[in-house]
Every structure is written in C-alpha cells, then in structure tokens.
Write a structure and sequence with these properties.
Helix content is about 55%, strand content about 10%. By secondary structure, it is α/β, with parallel strands linked by helices. Bound molecules: S-adenosylmethionine. S-adenosylmethionine (SAM) binds next to loops. The site of S-adenosylmethionine (SAM) has 22 residues, from loops.
Length: about 425
C-alpha cells in the first residue's frame, strides 16, 4: 500500500508513471533510498518523503531515466536543419532564435542542437538555448560536458572530431559549444517550468519524456509546453510520443518522419464543438502538406508501444523498415491504395483495397494496408484480424507483425506482444543478412 502511495506522490510531482519503469525497478530505488536513510519500514519512509523536500529530490534522482545520446532520433535533427536553412535563415535574419530543450538529461540533446546550428555558422550570439531537467545531478553532468562512448550511439558519428577532444576514454566537448547552453533545473509540469521561465520559444524539443507519463499527465505537459511555444514555432516530440491528446493541442508540421508539430491556435482547443469545426480545416491542411496515413498509423502504433528504452530503441530502428514497406512497384492498384491513404482519402483507399481483396484474397500486403487504414480510422476492433491475416499469409511481413504485437499489447496480452516482437526482430535480422 505504501509503495503505491509513494508512486502516487512522485507521479504527482514529476509525472512519472512507475509502471513504465517497471514496478521492481521503482521498488529497488525506494529500498535503496530507505537503506541510505536507515529506515526499514516503507510507511516510515513515506512520512519522511512527506516531510522532507530533500528526500523527495533524492528519490527523484534515483528514479529518473537519463537515457540519451547525441543526435538521438536523427529525423528530428534532419527536420531542424531544414527549418533553420529554409525558414529561419530566410525569414528571421535579424532575430535571435530561442530554443528550449526539455528535458535535456545529461546534455547530449541541447549540445546536438548547438552543433546543428554551428553547421550554419550560427554561434552562441545568434540563439538562446535553454535546457531544463528535473535532475540536478544530470544537469551537473551536462554542464561538465565530458562523455563516454555510450553517448555516441548512431552509426555515423563524424561530428566527434570537430567538437570533442579525446582524453583517455572520454570525449571532452569544446568550450564554445558547452557554454552556449543555459542549463536550469525545472519541471515541465509546473507553471513557468518551475524556475520562472516566461519566454516564448521558436523551437521546443521535448523528446522521450512523455512516454514515462500516463495519458492525463502527457496532456498536461503538452498543454503547459504549448504556452511557451511561439505561434509559428515548432515542437519536436519523441517517436513514441503520440496519441489523440496531441491532436488537440498540436498539428503536424511539414517535416516528414520527424514528429514535429505546430501549436493548434488556442481557440481551436476550447471545446469539442469548436474542435469538430476545426477538424475539417486541419484535415485539409494535413492532406495539403502530404501527411502520410501510413505515418499516422505508424504514429499510432508507436503510441501504444510497450515502454522502456529497449523496445523503444527497437522501434526507432524499425521505423525505416516499416515506412519502406511499400507495395511492389508493379502492383498499381495497391500503390494507388497507399497513395490514397497517404493523401488522407481513407474512404476511397478502403473501398479500393476491399475490392482488390475480392480477387486477391491471398495478398498479405492488401490486408496489411487495410489494417493501417482501419487503424487510421480508429476502428481498433477490426485491426487485429487484418494484421493477423497479413502475417498468416506472409510470415516474413515484419511490419504487420509489429502492428499485431502492439495490438496484442493494447489488448493486454503482454505475452503474445512479446513473442510477436521477438519474431519481428528475427525477421528484420534475417532480411538484413
Ligand atoms: C530519457 S531522458 C530524455 C532526454 C532527451 N530529451 C532525449 O531525448 O534524449 C528523460 C529525462 O527527463 C527528465 N525528467 C523526468 N521528469 C521530468 C519533469 N517532470 N520535468 C523535467 N524533466 C524531467 C529526467 O531527469 C531525464 O533526464
């Protein structure tokens, strides 16, 4: 009971849903702190937490997930690069670019942003980059700017020599990059981010934190961050951070595959009625900017992904494979289905796909596409069966397998979800070799 209360207490402060880090990990962290405090009863530790801000901070340090690396989720940085080159430098030559990295963890994300700007000749005088995190310990590490090889996990790390000195086993970030970031302790759930921040940013990076929150806290965080985003600003989220609540506050920006968003104007978030009215407008805008239904489906897929860094990392690496799972070039009808779906013409895509299936009832790809369409239509009940058929017809269809795994997870069948994930991983490996 008390562990549950400790979970709620922490969830109330930093938003962390303890289930996302695993109940045993959470309990281990609590026991560790109890040992340090020389407390043997959980109840007693709970009252310590209720009476000591210091102990709350220490427990927070213990439970936060610091996982990060340079140029993580590269698509965000590709999009950021396009934004700088094609929009910021063209339209805002005189202005200082304001960026927020929240949460920054040990600094790899904000420093990657600085390096991206440096490529365009934009040094510290041209921008203000604030980086916040709840953890003072992680922030101290960020300010030191000394990294191990674990911080470089992308295949291409050709920026290292330009920005780091190698000293023994460490990589020491150059001072001009290090001093371009203002690190501040803060809480993204709090008014003024808990540290008096009041400015509006042109760019906000909020990646790989919301996955550790429950739905209502995710929405609260997004709503809060939106207050700090300029009307034409761009917010980058992590690949797994999607869901209906996002559409209420954010609308996709034009950068494909980057999980980049603009703020929905305030009046559009006010009531259901107003949202319904604005939906048509948004749908139109979405199709105009070429948002892909297959990407939307992928987004939905990720939103229900089992959390935890390992599976997320797997899904990140799966993205390309999933999106590239196109119908064969010579299959004009299925390509048309996909094209229609990508343009948001779901009804037409669905009708064409269904009629195709009448004469091609052994086409795994058609069932897969219909599954994606149903997913985009929000018809979850029909989705599982369609992906199951696709996998049955083509046991190497990894994309259908991943969708099916996530569907099983959503239905609460964790064992099946795990098995399907493992199968999909094997298929990907086999396809690569
Ligand atoms: C997994 S890291 C993500 C870092 C980076 N954005 C990235 O994508 O690589 C999550 C970070 O969120 C921080 N954090 C957790 N709850 C927070 C909160 N309520 N406000 C601010 N930071 C928080 C943790 O301390 C941790 O450093």
């Amino acid at each position: 009971m008390s562990i549950t209360e400790i979970k709620s207490l922490l969830q109330g402060i930093i938003g962390l849903n303890a289930n996302t880090v695993g109940a045993s990990n959470f309990e281990r962290a609590v026991r560790h702190r109890m040992k340090i405090c020389e407390i043997s009863e959980v109840n007693e530790y709970l009252s310590e937490l209720e009476n000591s801000e210091y102990e709350v901070k220490e427990l927070i340090e213990e439970v936060v997930i610091p996982e990060t690396w340079f140029f993580r989720n590269q698509q965000s940085f590709i999009a950021f690069d396009s934004y700088i080159k094609d929009e910021w430098l063209v339209n805002n030559k005189e202005k200082k670019l304001k960026i927020l990295s929240a949460p920054s963890s040990t600094g790899e994300e904000p420093y990657s942003i600085v390096m991206s700007l440096d490529k365009h000749g934009l040094g510290g005088d041209y921008f203000q980059l604030d980086a916040i995190d709840i953890s003072t310990r992680l922030l101290s590490k960020a300010k030191r700017g000394v990294y191990g090889k674990h911080s470089f996990r992308n295949k291409e790390n050709n920026f290292i020599d330009a920005y780091f000195d190698r000293i023994d086993d460490t990589f020491v970030l150059h001072e001009d990059i290090r001093t371009s970031v203002n690190f501040k302790q803060g809480n993204i759930l709090e008014e003024n981010l808990g540290n008096g921040t009041a400015i509006k940013y042109d760019i906000i990076f909020c990646r790989n934190l919301l996955i550790y929150f429950d739905r209502s806290t995710q929405e609260k965080a997004i709503e809060n961050l939106c207050k700090f985003l300029n009307d034409d600003g761009v917010m980058f989220l992590g690949h797994a951070e999607t869901g209906e609540y996002i559409n209420k506050h954010l609308t996709r920006a034009k950068y494909a595959r980057a999980f980049a968003y603009h703020r929905v104007p305030k009046e559009n978030t006010k009531s259901k009625k107003e949202r319904a009215l604005s939906k048509d407008k948004l749908d139109h805008k979405k199709s105009k900017i070429g948002q892909k239904t297959t990407q939307t489906a992928f987004k939905k897929l990720l939103s229900s992904a089992p959390t935890g860094e390992k599976s997320l990392h797997f899904l990140e690496t799966m993205e390309i494979n999933l999106l590239d799972n196109n119908p064969p070039k010579n299959d004009k009808i299925l390509r048309k289905v996909k094209q229609l779906a990508d343009a948001g013409e779901l009804k037409e895509a669905s009708a064409l796909c269904e009629s195709y299936l009448q004469t091609h009832d052994a086409s795994a790809q058609a069932y897969y596409l219909l599954g994606l369409i149903r997913e985009s239509e929000g018809k979850q009940k029909l989705v599982g069966e369609l992906f199951r058929k696709a996998v049955y017809l083509d046991p190497n269809h990894h994309a259908a397998m991943i969708h099916l795994a996530l569907h099983a997870g959503r239905q609460g069948d964790a064992d099946m979800a795990k098995k399907l994930h493992q199968r999909a991983q094997r298929v990907v490996k086999r396809n690569k070799s």
